[in-house]
Amino acid sequence: MISQVDQADYYWGPVTSTIDWCEENYTVSPYLAEFFNTITNLGFVFFSLFGIYNTLKNGFSGTFIIAYLGVMLVGFGSWCFHMTLQYEMQLLDELPMIYVASIMVWHTFIADPNSKIGYKLPLTLAVYSGIVTYSYILINNPVFHQVSYAILVFTVVFRAIFLVRKVPSTYTYEKPQLTRVLWISAFGFILAFVLWNIDNQFCPSLREWRHSVSLITGSISELHGWWHIGTGLGVYYFIVFCEWVNPILRSSSQRYRLHWLGPLCYLRPVVKKD
What we know:
This protein has 274 residues and is mainly α. The protein has helices spanning 35-39, 42-58, 62-84, 87-110, 120-139, 142-166, 174-201, 203-210, 215-219, 223-249, and strands at residues 256-261, 264-269. 66% of the residues lie in helices and 4% in strands. A hairpin with a 2-residue loop joins strand 1 and strand 2 (264-269). It starts with 34 loop residues before the first helix and ends in a 5-residue tail after the last strand.
């Protein structure tokens, strides 16, 4: 059973964010407004640390570490937001999503050696992020943020498809595996998006069911938390995709194989036999 807490007793004060999610507030901990929506952000941190470890082990470009650190920033901001439900923390959650998505767009271009972007694309993305940040603070409408984020996501999707098609057919192992990783990444985002919408549209029913079962059983239906895990995995897979497609399109002599540790994939160089 879930017991409700009056706003006057909220540790971080009354809710000032423009969104208050389906998870009922301060029902588990007096210090975490949305307990399950908060702790599921640890996935962003864990996936990123694992990715940084493999990036360093494989000697990949430091730009991928920047991408993983960006994902960690999203997790940190989301943790602060769901922990407090304060508007300032909401911005710390939502705006880094724009910045990290911009980094992913950048990666889909620098992976292509024929792309002549120079400084123009990073500058354009920085200006775009700045405009979105300034406008969102003024407009204060979550739909504006969602549309701005969706534009970047669609750009990443189309660029990723373009990159896969550029992989030569002679890479008989790599090309289908790259496609597989990309599909798994997309599935993570799509499933997370579906759960996010169910959480929004059927919140009264979900809350009613949670009140009829134990806290642990009811936590399964905290679908916004599953959104965190799904998007965290999705972006992790996509960075691995970028790490792999980059040396292939640059005709590097070093080949890589895909390995799995539970739900997480990672790359290891193929050792050449004398």
